[in-house]
């Protein structure tokens, strides 16, 4: 199947050709015709599968067919993070380059006035984070009364981050009659409940099983004492010759400390987290993409919304407290059919977190020590166990993972050799 068989207009096909897309991905093949037909949609697809194009392309076509441009937005895309909003905005501009449509992106962390100016000039498609959008509504600089299409992107992440009340406020500002599209990297029970109150007779698409990780990502783990994690990471940079690695930590302070340590080891690094200004976050990401820094150290603010072409390596310096976040972290590599690797450094106090991740994935993760960095036989008494809250979401709701194979630290698999926002 090709893109021209999906019913897209010539202007969009020209843009797709410019982007060097050859064949639509499964989510694009299934979603584009349904959206063009005007159906509400509940779609689940793992990250890196072309989900953004699956809704942006048909929405642009519907806007071009629904009438002439107006001052008020006719389509609204809500995203949980600034980075994802910016990424979607880039795709909208690229796909709509040959269409007479106007779009803009609004999110927090930057000045309001440039956004106000863009809204006053008139916008067909608005991409926004919930909080900043409500700020504009409160100042009467954004009018949502003529929105004909609503898209919730990464809806599960918005729920995790506590945006449900903002979303409900926004829904009250929209026309009752509209097309609703709900896209998510995971297809959780919470998402289904949200969909029941939002979507009207929706078409349902799920192109990968719940919480599936990218098939092209090779996952592994190294057991190590917590006190030696930084030294092990620096050792791996030198041994493996890594030049572009996305490293995840749990905390902002931990990210800053790790950047300092890597710098002392001669490894260029930058941090990206919620305490950084949007300008600093954008600069760090741009430097990473250009290769000016070898390591981008991030909290889970970067687990969604970072689109880095051919990112070869993700490292979990610390495992996330919520198992589902592991899926989104490693989804930054192995995108669009490319290969990738995800490595976790696991200390004694994280062994239960690793078990929870394996239960969620219903698969084992290959575990092997690094010579010279083997963990102690018994955990240091000073190390607390963060897994007590391992399956609780951002609002304290319990997360249950399906039963599956679990292997304890140091136990090798027979297959080992075969293969908010902060």
TrEMBL record:
One of its GO terms (molecular function) is RNA helicase activity. Residues 1-29 form the DEAD-box RNA helicase Q domain. Residues 392-401 have a biased composition (Basic residues). Residues 413-422 have a biased composition (Basic and acidic residues). Keywords: ATP-binding, Cytoplasm, Helicase, Hydrolase, Nucleotide-binding. It is an enzyme of class 3 (hydrolase). A motif (Q motif) lies at residues 1-29. This is DEAD-box ATP-dependent RNA helicase RhpA.
